[in-house]
Amino acid sequence: MSKQAVEISVYGAEVLCPSCVNLPSSKETYEWLQAAVARKFPDQPFTISYIDIFKAENCEDEKKAFASRVVEEDMFYPVVVINGEIVGEGNPKLKTVYAEMEKYGYIAS
User: Fold this and answer.
1) 69, 75 in Cβ contact below 8 A?
2) What pLDDT, in 10s, does the model give residues 59-84?
3) How many angstroms separate the CA atoms of 77 and 29, rounded?
4) Does this model's pTM top 0.85?
5) pLDDT given at position 14
6) 53: which of 41, 46, 67, 108 fits an S-S bond (Cβ 3.0–4.6 Å)?
7) Contact 108/7 with Cβ under 8 angstroms?
Protein backbone atom coordinates (compact mmCIF):
# COMPACT_ATOMS: atom_id res chain seq x y z
CA MET A 1 0.00 0.00 0.00
CA SER A 2 1.44 3.39 -0.90
CA LYS A 3 1.47 6.16 1.61
CA GLN A 4 -0.53 9.30 1.03
CA ALA A 5 0.44 12.29 3.21
CA VAL A 6 -2.55 13.09 5.37
CA GLU A 7 -3.85 16.39 6.58
CA ILE A 8 -5.06 16.49 10.16
CA SER A 9 -7.29 19.41 11.08
CA VAL A 10 -8.20 20.19 14.67
CA TYR A 11 -11.25 22.45 14.99
CA GLY A 12 -11.78 24.12 18.33
CA ALA A 13 -12.01 27.34 20.30
CA GLU A 14 -10.27 29.18 23.11
CA VAL A 15 -13.33 28.71 25.29
CA LEU A 16 -13.86 25.14 26.45
CA CYS A 17 -16.78 23.19 25.05
CA PRO A 18 -19.58 23.41 27.68
CA SER A 19 -19.76 19.61 27.85
CA CYS A 20 -15.97 19.23 27.98
CA VAL A 21 -15.19 21.15 31.17
CA ASN A 22 -12.70 18.66 32.66
CA LEU A 23 -10.89 17.99 29.37
CA PRO A 24 -7.86 19.75 27.86
CA SER A 25 -8.45 22.82 25.72
CA SER A 26 -8.67 22.51 21.94
CA LYS A 27 -5.23 24.10 21.55
CA GLU A 28 -3.72 21.69 24.11
CA THR A 29 -5.31 18.77 22.28
CA TYR A 30 -3.84 20.03 18.98
CA GLU A 31 -0.34 20.25 20.50
CA TRP A 32 -0.68 16.85 22.20
CA LEU A 33 -1.93 15.23 18.98
CA GLN A 34 0.86 16.77 16.91
CA ALA A 35 3.51 15.37 19.26
CA ALA A 36 1.85 11.95 19.61
CA VAL A 37 1.46 11.41 15.85
CA ALA A 38 5.05 12.52 15.18
CA ARG A 39 6.28 9.99 17.78
CA LYS A 40 4.10 7.16 16.47
CA PHE A 41 4.96 7.73 12.81
CA PRO A 42 8.48 9.23 12.81
CA ASP A 43 9.91 10.44 9.48
CA GLN A 44 6.50 10.01 7.83
CA PRO A 45 5.11 13.30 6.48
CA PHE A 46 1.78 14.70 7.60
CA THR A 47 0.38 18.16 8.14
CA ILE A 48 -1.63 19.28 11.12
CA SER A 49 -3.45 22.55 11.55
CA TYR A 50 -5.54 24.20 14.21
CA ILE A 51 -8.66 26.09 13.15
CA ASP A 52 -10.48 28.31 15.63
CA ILE A 53 -14.17 27.76 14.88
CA PHE A 54 -15.02 31.33 15.82
CA LYS A 55 -12.14 32.93 13.87
CA ALA A 56 -12.06 30.93 10.66
CA GLU A 57 -12.66 33.83 8.28
CA ASN A 58 -9.09 33.69 6.91
CA CYS A 59 -9.18 29.93 6.27
CA GLU A 60 -9.75 28.22 2.93
CA ASP A 61 -13.43 27.75 2.06
CA GLU A 62 -13.63 24.06 2.98
CA LYS A 63 -12.20 24.65 6.47
CA LYS A 64 -14.32 27.76 6.97
CA ALA A 65 -17.46 25.78 6.05
CA PHE A 66 -16.56 22.94 8.42
CA ALA A 67 -15.84 25.40 11.25
CA SER A 68 -19.36 26.81 10.75
CA ARG A 69 -20.76 23.29 10.79
CA VAL A 70 -19.09 22.59 14.15
CA VAL A 71 -20.83 25.66 15.61
CA GLU A 72 -24.22 25.11 13.93
CA GLU A 73 -24.45 21.41 14.80
CA ASP A 74 -23.23 21.94 18.39
CA MET A 75 -20.44 19.39 17.94
CA PHE A 76 -18.23 18.69 20.92
CA TYR A 77 -14.90 20.31 20.20
CA PRO A 78 -12.13 19.85 19.49
CA VAL A 79 -13.18 17.98 16.37
CA VAL A 80 -10.33 16.06 14.71
CA VAL A 81 -10.62 15.55 10.95
CA ILE A 82 -8.25 13.51 8.79
CA ASN A 83 -8.55 14.11 5.05
CA GLY A 84 -12.18 15.17 5.46
CA GLU A 85 -13.18 12.29 7.78
CA ILE A 86 -14.21 13.06 11.39
CA VAL A 87 -12.13 10.78 13.64
CA GLY A 88 -12.70 12.39 17.02
CA GLU A 89 -15.01 14.78 18.77
CA GLY A 90 -14.70 16.28 22.27
CA ASN A 91 -12.08 13.90 23.62
CA PRO A 92 -10.36 12.31 20.61
CA LYS A 93 -8.80 8.89 21.08
CA LEU A 94 -5.27 8.28 19.81
CA LYS A 95 -6.12 4.72 18.84
CA THR A 96 -8.79 6.00 16.42
CA VAL A 97 -6.47 8.65 14.96
CA TYR A 98 -3.68 6.08 14.51
CA ALA A 99 -6.05 3.59 12.85
CA GLU A 100 -7.19 6.22 10.36
CA MET A 101 -3.58 7.12 9.53
CA GLU A 102 -2.71 3.46 9.00
CA LYS A 103 -5.46 3.32 6.34
CA TYR A 104 -3.30 5.76 4.36
CA GLY A 105 -0.20 3.57 4.64
CA TYR A 106 1.41 4.97 7.78
CA ILE A 107 3.47 2.41 9.69
CA ALA A 108 3.79 2.69 13.45
CA SER A 109 7.30 2.61 14.86
Assistant:
1) yes
2) 899 999 999 999 999 898 999 999 99
3) 10
4) yes
5) 87
6) 67
7) no
pLDDT of residue 85: 94
d(Cα 7, Cα 19) in Å, to the nearest integer? 27
Please spell the DSSP secondary structure of the chain, one letter per residue.
Answer: -----EEEEEEE-SSPPTT-TTSPPHHHHHHHHHHHHHHHSTT--EEEEEEETTS-TTS-HHHHHHHHHHHHTT--SSEEEETTEEEEESS--HHHHHHHHHHTT----
User: In this structure, which amino acid lies at residue 49?
Assistant: S
Q: Is there a contact between 36 and 94 (Cβ–Cβ < 8 Å)? A: yes
Question: Phi-psi category of 105—alpha, beta or left, where left has phi over 0 and alpha has psi -120 to 50?
Answer: left
Nearest to 17 by CA among 68, 50, 53: 53
Q: Are 29 and 78 in contact (CB under 8 A)?
A: yes
